[in-house]
Mannonate dehydratase
Amino acid sequence: MNMTWRWYGEGNDDITLDHIRQIPGVMGIVWSLHDKVAGEEWDMAKIQEVADQITSKGFSTAVVESVNVHDDIKIGLPSRDKYIDIYIDTIKKLSKVGVKVICYNFMPIFDWTRTELYKELPDGSNALFYEKAAITDNPQEMVDRILQGSKNFTMPGWEPERLSKLDELFKAYENVTEEVLFDNLKYFLERIIPVCEEYDVKMAIHPDDPAWPIFGLPRIIRSRNHIRRFLDLVDSPYNGLTFCTGSLGSNPENDLPAMIREFHDRIHFAHIRNVKVFENGDFIEVSHRGQDGSVDVAEVVKAYHENGFIGYVRPDHGRHLWGEEKHCRPGYGLYDRALGIMYLLGVWDSLENEKNKGGK
Ligand code: CS2
Ligand code: MN
């Protein structure tokens, strides 16, 4: 398992590279320039500076999450070509510091969506929670709640400047149906994938979180059929997936191990985490251990193992433990993600041992 850890950068994360060095098995840092808004150019000097910080501690820089896609590209406005040119320029620059995979998403307006950031679990820890009934007709309420809980950390996909124009944004997406969104994604991919092939950088789209349309906005990376259609838009290994079990697992109809077995050769980046889905469709994030939630995490790891998976992996979100919610980023504390890594590596190592003993 090529294990990685998402780090938000100096001054933007309460966790340091020195903390991360003490977690067994972490080989790479998943990074980004988090002060860049979608559509903005990335400067080479800044890219190099962060890459140097990461390599100086012995980590790989191979995965960037995210380079956010400007809304004009998703909406299909004439200005999209300008923003795609900037995106291409960023892909080329990132290839110079060893980036091999870029994780991005194509969700209109909102990235991941929750109704509570610090919902208490029975064990006294707390975690991100989605309550269906709390999603009203008014998205502004949800935005305010999330931004209040962010403790002034920048949150990818939750840029206050962009979200301050929520009415305008919703209006711009008025005619964007699922079909239109697929067309606009195809347009984007047809321009960038040839560049990715030339520069050896794989694109890995992140699924929609949660895995259903919200506030009337279409969402297209949320089931086996949607993913099949996405991969066929541009049939190149450079057009691939970030397979996030937490996002796809919010809908219990998604058979995650079966999807991994089907799509493994196009999965470049695995986000592995667990969610507990309640009967009414609400869900909360829980520990990585399979028994604690609705995702059979050990079976997920097994599906990767039996297909000789060599892509990058990270624990995705974690619960907030032992009071760390006072200072950590929502969903990105130190302890539960570190525990998650030990669980994932434990399952993986035992499968490896079996294999090496001549078992299957
Ligand atoms: C991440 C996503 O925190 C998360 O759920 O996995 O926000 C992911 O970084 C983006 O969707 C990728 O663009
Ligand atoms: Mn994820």
